[in-house]
Specification:
The complex is a heterodimer of chains A (249) and B (113). Chain A is built from 9 helices and 7 strands, in the order ββαβββββαααααααα. Chain A is α+β, with helices and mostly antiparallel strands and 249 residues long. The longest helix of chain B is centred in the first third of the chain and has 29 residues. Classes of the chains: A alpha+beta (249), B mainly alpha (113). Chain A: This is Fumarate reductase iron-sulfur subunit.
């Protein structure tokens, strides 16, 4: 390949069966304007080194599987172009704050365990029967939560969050944004149940409003905004619990 | 649930202090750093200012203002020590920061009265 148009890829490798810890491996890949970091990794996998492991699927910013730290910044590699990181070498690492399974593959078990705690589904007091038809929603009611529904669970916000890095018990940005998404849904009645989880220290109070989650979010969900809204909700509830008699909550 | 927790109340004071600081501190900085020294505006006389600040309503407002600003800075400083400098003595840090705010409150009260 012509050396005039190539770029170095410095990839973090970790093979638990043979490596004592993560190390670096360098690859030279063609520098093409339309190529993303994911394209470069696929080139490595197909042409140079089939042992490299990484997750990817849709290559169009929807599936949320190709998140990695590119030059120290959590990114969807399918939306990160090589030319923006020229002249390189480009540092590609697994997302920070997670255990590494192998090479660039992280272990998401912690998030998968936390997500259901905030009950990210529509909760009804009583389910209306199929004969009664669908739950109608106006465009305004849709707009109320739409932004928070754009989350693709790509984990970039967890990789960027210094609080999650320091305190893995923190429930984290995406989970809180998704709780807010269902709270704001006009069909949902589960706000109280979610608040019971998020009002705890590991819920919203862990957040110190660094705001990195919102900065790195590829879908502009604004998890930091969701957390601040939730803090206000939780604070209001706490004040009411003190001021109001027991019966009125 | 409805376990009594301190965090929501500290956070409410922290937020209120942040809003007040953002709204009023630039005004103070503008008046005392630029407008008065550069002669854009004539500063009020000492007697006038002193009369304004000794009115009970002003005292009440200023006290609330100072307390919230102090809690705001204590809270910020506390997390700077926890997370920024990685100080593990959490109880001592909290005591130092909020204790400092409490001392500041007493001092503010002494100055105002």
């Amino acid at each position: 390949m012509g050396s005039e148009s190539s770029i170095g890829l410095r990839v973090s490798r970790y093979r638990p069966e043979s490596d004592p810890g993560p190390g670096w491996q360098e690859y030279d890949v063609p520098l093409r304007t339309e190529w993303t970091v994911l394209d470069a990794l696929n080139h490595v996998k197909n042409e140079l080194d089939p042992t490299l492991s990484f997750r990817w699927s849709c290559r169009m910013g929807i599936c949320g599987s190709c998140g990695m730290n590119v030059d120290g910044e959590p990114r969807l590699t399918c939306g990160t172009f090589l030319v923006d990181h020229a002249p390189g070498p480009i540092r590609v690492e697994p997302l920070a704050n997670f255990h590494v399974v192998r090479d660039l593959v992280i272990d998401m078990t912690d998030f998968m365990e936390k997500l259901p705690r905030v009950k990210p589904w529509i909760i009804r007091d009583e389910e209306q029967s199929v004969d009664d038809g669908e739950y109608l929603q106006t465009p305004e009611e849709l707009d109320a939560y739409k932004q928070f529904s754009m989350c693709i669970n790509c984990m970039l916000c967890y990789a960027a969050c210094p609080v999650y890095g320091l305190d893995p018990d923190f429930i984290g940005p995406a989970a809180i944004a998704l709780a807010e998404r269902y709270d704001l849904d006009s069909r949902d009645r589960g706000a109280r149940e979610r608040l019971d989880v998020l009002i705890e220290h590991e819920g919203v109070w862990g957040c110190t409003f660094v705001g990195e989650c919102t900065r790195v979010c590829p879908k502009h969900v604004d998890p930091a905004g969701a957390i601040q809204r939730y803090k206000l909700k939780a604070a209001k509830q706490s004040v009411m619990a003190v001021l109001l008699p027991r019966g009125a909550r | 649930m409805t376990k009594r927790r301190l965090e929501p109340f500290v956070w409410l004071m922290f937020s209120a202090g942040g809003v007040l600081a953002a709204v009023f501190l630039p005004v103070l900085a503008f008046l005392f750093a630029f407008a008065f020294p550069l002669g854009w505006m004539t500063p009020p006389g000492h007697a006038h200012l002193s009369a304004v600040t000794s009115h009970p309503l002003t005292v009440l407002f200023l006290l609330g203002f100072f307390v919230l600003l102090l809690v705001h800075s204590a809270h910020r400083f506390r997390y700077t020590l926890y997370d920024g400098l990685q100080i593990k003595a959490r109880r001592a840090v909290a005591l130092l920061c909020y204790g400092g705010a409490a001392v500041g409150t007493v001092l503010a009260l002494a100055v105002l009265l």
